[in-house]
Design brief:
Layout: E1 2-4, E2 18-20, H1 27-48, H2 61-65
Antiparallel strand pairs: 1-2
Length: 68
């Protein structure tokens, strides 16, 4: 188990620390993996509903994946 309290960002401090349960060998690797996941989740949100709305666009998979 790892506990991480993020430092101040733009004069704001997080109210709660991150409690991370992992099988990775150390806290540094755990934080790196978690930060990557947060970025991936934000990208998925953008692609789905956060702006691009790919699910509602009715575009075909063939057209979206076609090489130019």
């Amino acid at each position: 188990m790892g506990i991480y309290w993020k430092g101040k960002y733009r004069q704001k401090q997080e109210k709660e620390p991150w409690y991370l349960l992992t099988d990775l060998p150390n806290l540094e690797e755990t934080l790196l993996a978690y930060k990557k996941r947060v970025g991936i989740e934000a990208m998925f949100k953008d692609c789905k509903t956060g702006g691009y709305n790919l699910e509602g666009s009715k575009a075909s998979i063939e057209r979206l994946t076609q090489a130019v």
